[in-house]
Write a structure and sequence with these properties.
By secondary structure, the chain is mainly alpha-helical. The chain contains 10 helices and no strands. Helix 1 runs antiparallel to helix 2 and helix 2 packs antiparallel against helix 3. One of its GO terms (cellular component) is plasma membrane.
Length: 206
């Protein structure tokens, strides 16, 4: 077994274990941290396959931005972990069946020969001026341009739907109107009252 295969199987095993930790962790914060570890293992495998752009994008976009947002939301939410775990074993068989179905679909799409025990060869060496970013962009905007545009439209619809749900009207919510605040005069907020002074005896002071 070559050094490439050892590193590949090591990061693959780490990715599988951390992915199981995402589902099996009792604390939601621990699940998010396991997911971060899964992304790091995936980026390491992409580096082994000389897909540097995908690896750096996974670390910067998902680990550096999306997962930080997920962690912030999870820590801010008041989640009842005990109540959430009550129906876990009841839905476990259904989840296992879905996982098996997904594995079968992956084997049918990718091909049974890719899931064998044969040795995986190292990626083909390219010249120093080779850019996988250029090759990825060429394939993405030529052969898969329609799928790319469709995914963009779906993400746009999801963003608009999320904003619409958060901007719903609440009856007891107060909103500021900056235009009305700028038009206000001092007479509207300040009233000067004139009062006569009265003498206070020493006994009243005490």
């Amino acid at each position: 077994m070559t050094f490439f295969e050892i590193v590949f199987y090591a990061f693959s095993a780490l990715m599988v274990v951390s992915a199981l930790g995402v589902v099996g962790a009792r604390n939601p914060v621990h699940s998010v941290l396991f997911l971060v570890l899964t992304f790091f293992a995936s980026s390491a495998i992409w580096l082994l396959l000389e897909a540097e752009f995908l690896a750096i994008t996974l670390v910067l976009v998902y680990v550096g931005a999306v997962m930080v947002l997920f962690l912030f939301v999870v820590m801010m939410l008041d989640i009842n972990i005990t109540r959430m775990r009550e129906g876990l074993m009841r839905y476990a068989p259904f989840g296992i069946a879905i996982a098996i179905l997904l594995i079968v679909q992956m084997i049918m799409v990718v091909g049974p020969e890719q899931f064998g025990l044969q040795a995986f060869a190292a990626p083909e060496k390219h010249a120093a001026d080779y850019s996988n970013t250029k090759e990825l962009g060429r394939v993405l905007y030529t052969e898969y341009v329609y799928a790319f545009e469709l995914a963009s439209v779906i993400l746009l619809v999801a963003i608009v739907a999320a904003i619409t749900l958060t901007m719903r009207r609440r009856p007891n919510t107060r909103h500021q109107v900056p235009g009305e605040q700028m038009k206000v005069m001092k007479e509207d907020r300040l009233r000067i009252v004139k009062m006569k002074s009265e003498a206070i005896d020493s006994e009243e002071r005490q």
